[in-house]
C-alpha cells in the first residue's frame, strides 16, 4: 500500500477515534469556558478553512463597498455634468432643438442610467414645448415604468403622458395611460382631485371608444369622491359636473 494512502487512513482513524471519545468529559469549568475551549480547538484543527473563509468574506465585502462607492462617485459626476449642460444652455439661450440634442447626447455618452429619470422628464417637457406630444408622452411613459415609488408620482407621469397622447389624438394610448394612472391612485386616501380627473379622463375615452359599461363605472367613481383638502373644492365640483353630463349622455345613447 502506498505510504501516503496509509498515512491518510491512519489520520482518518485517529480522527474517528477522537470524535467518539469526548476529550472534554473531565472538564470542570463553566459552560462558557467549555464552549470557548471547544471553539479554540475547532479553530486550531480547521485554521486553514477558517482563514480561507475570512479572506473570502473580506474580499466580497470590499468588492461590495467599492462598487457602491464607485456608483455614488459616478452619479455625482454625472449630476455635475448635467447641471453644467443645463447652465450652458440657459446662458446661451439655446433653442429647444439644441437643448434636446444636448440631453439626448448626454444620455448616450455620459449617463450610466442613474440620470435617466431626470433627463427623461426634461426631454418630455422640451418635446411638449416643441409640439411633439408623441415623443413627450414616450419619455414620461418610460419614466413611469422606471419609477415605483412614490406611487402618486408614478401615476402623475402616466396621467400627463395620457394628456400628451390625447393631444395627438392617439385615443388608444391615451386611454391606456389614464387607466394606469387611475388604477395606481385609486387606493390613495388623499388627492381626491387628481383621482377624479384620472377617472373622468378614463371614462371619457372609454365612452369615446365604445366601452359604455366601463365608462359608466369610471365616471360613477368620480361622483363618489369627497374633497380631502381645504382647497380644490371648485375643481372637484367641476369634474363631477362633467362626469354627470357624460353619464346622462351615456344613458341616452
Give an account of the 3D structure.
The radius of gyration is 33 Å and the shape is flat. The chain contains eleven helices and no strands. Among the domains are: 94-174, Serine Threonine Protein Phosphatase 5, Tetratricopeptide repeat (Alpha Horseshoe); 189-253. The mean pLDDT is 81. The termini are far apart. Helix 5 (116-130) packs antiparallel against helix 6 (133-146). With 253 residues, the protein is mainly alpha-helical. The chain has helices at residues 3-20, 31-45, 47-91, 96-109, 116-130, 133-146, 151-167, 171-185, 192-208, 212-224, 233-252. The chain crosses the membrane at residues 50-68. This is Tetratricopeptide repeat protein.
Quick recap:
The protein is mainly alpha-helical and 253 residues long.
Topology of this structure?
Layout: H1 3-20, H2 31-45, H3 47-91, H4 96-109, H5 116-130, H6 133-146, H7 151-167, H8 171-185, H9 192-208, H10 212-224, H11 233-252
Helix pairs in contact: 3-4, 4-5, 5-6, 6-7, 7-8, 8-9, 9-10, 9-11, 10-11
Amino acid at each position: 500500500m502506498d505510504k501516503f494512502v496509509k498515512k491518510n487512513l491512519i489520520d482518518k482513524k485517529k480522527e474517528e477515534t477522537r470524535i467518539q471519545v469526548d476529550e472534554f468529559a473531565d472538564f470542570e469549568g463553566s459552560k462558557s469556558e467549555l464552549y470557548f475551549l471547544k471553539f479554540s480547538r475547532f479553530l486550531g484543527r480547521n485554521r486553514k478553512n477558517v482563514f480561507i473563509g475570512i479572506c473570502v468574506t473580506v474580499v466580497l465585502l470590499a468588492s461590495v463597498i467599492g462598487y457602491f462607492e464607485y456608483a455614488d462617485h459616478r452619479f455625482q459626476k454625472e449630476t455635475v455634468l448635467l447641471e453644467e449642460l443645463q447652465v450652458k444652455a440657459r446662458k446661451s439661450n439655446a433653442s429647444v432643438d439644441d437643448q434636446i440634442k444636448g440631453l439626448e447626447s448626454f444620455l448616450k455618452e455620459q449617463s450610466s442610467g442613474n440620470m435617466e429619470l431626470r433627463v427623461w422628464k426634461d426631454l418630455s417637457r422640451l418635446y411638449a414645448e416643441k409640439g411633439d406630444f408623441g415623443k413627450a408622452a414616450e419619455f414620461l411613459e418610460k419614466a413611469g415604468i422606471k419609477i415605483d415609488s412614490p406611487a402618486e408620482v408614478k401615476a402623475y407621469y402616466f396621467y400627463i403622458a395620457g394628456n400628451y397622447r390625447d393631444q395627438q389624438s392617439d385615443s388608444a394610448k391615451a386611454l391606456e395611460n389614464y387607466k394606469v394612472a387611475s388604477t395606481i391612485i385609486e387606493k390613495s386616501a388623499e388627492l381626491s382631485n387628481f383621482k377624479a380627473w384620472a377617472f373622468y379622463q378614463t371614462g371619457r375615452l372609454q365612452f369615446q371608444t365604445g366601452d359604455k359599461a366601463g365608462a359608466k363605472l369610471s365616471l360613477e367613481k368620480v361622483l363618489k369622491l369627497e374633497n380631502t383638502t381645504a382647497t380644490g373644492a371648485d375643481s372637484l365640483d367641476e369634474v363631477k359636473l362633467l362626469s354627470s353630463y357624460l353619464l346622462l349622455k351615456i344613458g341616452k345613447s
